[in-house]
Amino acid sequence: MLxxxxxxxxxxxxxxxxxxxxxxxxxxxxxxxxxxxxVFLPVVIFNALVTTDLNMDSIFLVVxxxxxxxxxxxxxxxxxxxNKKEYRKYIPFTTTLFEGGMxxxxxxxxxxxxxxxxxxxxxxIAGVIFxxxxxxxxxxxxxxxxxxxxxxxxxxxxxxxxxxxxxxxILGMIISFTGLGRVxxxxxxxxxxxxxxxxxxxxxxxxxxxxxxxxxxxxxxxLIDAFIMAGQRIMAVAVAVVISLLxxxxxxxxxxxxxxxxxxxxxxxxxMLVSVYTxxxxxxxxxxxxxxxYIVLSLIIFSILLWRVKSA
Length: 312
Description:
This protein is mainly α and 312 residues long. 75% of the residues lie in helices and 0% in strands. It has helices spanning 2-20, 26-50, 56-79, 100-112, 118-142, 153-162, 164-178, 180-186, 190-201, 204-214, 223-248, 256-265, 273-277, 281-311.
């Protein structure tokens, strides 16, 4: 367990240290994140799907994922009435969506190995579609300085179509379903492809974890509000997952790897974009504190899962 956990903790603490000593600027970290999520991550997603034989379970995983997102989103509109007026409009956007790209893939790979990453890659397809359409459109409209006229639906649609992660996921599923992935791997260029994919995939985990540590933000004045917001997300996600499993669970074959992947995925914080679109210094402070708090929670759950995996 320690040989897996210690490197992860050290990479996160490296990010914390880099920010503390101001070794790099926020802009540099932003550029590194962009490379990680738009270059390395799509390769990881594509390779995870191409190198496995997908079946109808994969379709039901996407459907289940979409169900969780919609139910969580709906519950957010109910729970927002329990929050302070200044930021209650953002609550529905914190009770749905999961930060697979910046956190999920790195932690899940440590739990189930890269050969089983196709589980989280498949579930996350729903998140990418939902996130680039309904979620981001309504979140933009919730902004204090954003009106309906400012929301450019065409741009959002273009961003979704151009999303490297969505393109990688869709192409990966098509190639896997058609059997072309197996043909590729068994051909003469198979070893070349595998080595290339491994080289592109290797930097993802350390880069993401360093950026994760760099982005942690806690403030005493926002702890209570952030704690309440995080608690509401936990309740909403738990209810959404249970309802979705009751509806679609019978269509899935729950392997140990799938169970672990689902627990880790649904323990992740909401998309980091929620803090980008949140308006107002106070609101941004609460949101950043909640995200940091939830990241710590995700790491605790990861540690528990890792202990269970290693002791099994």
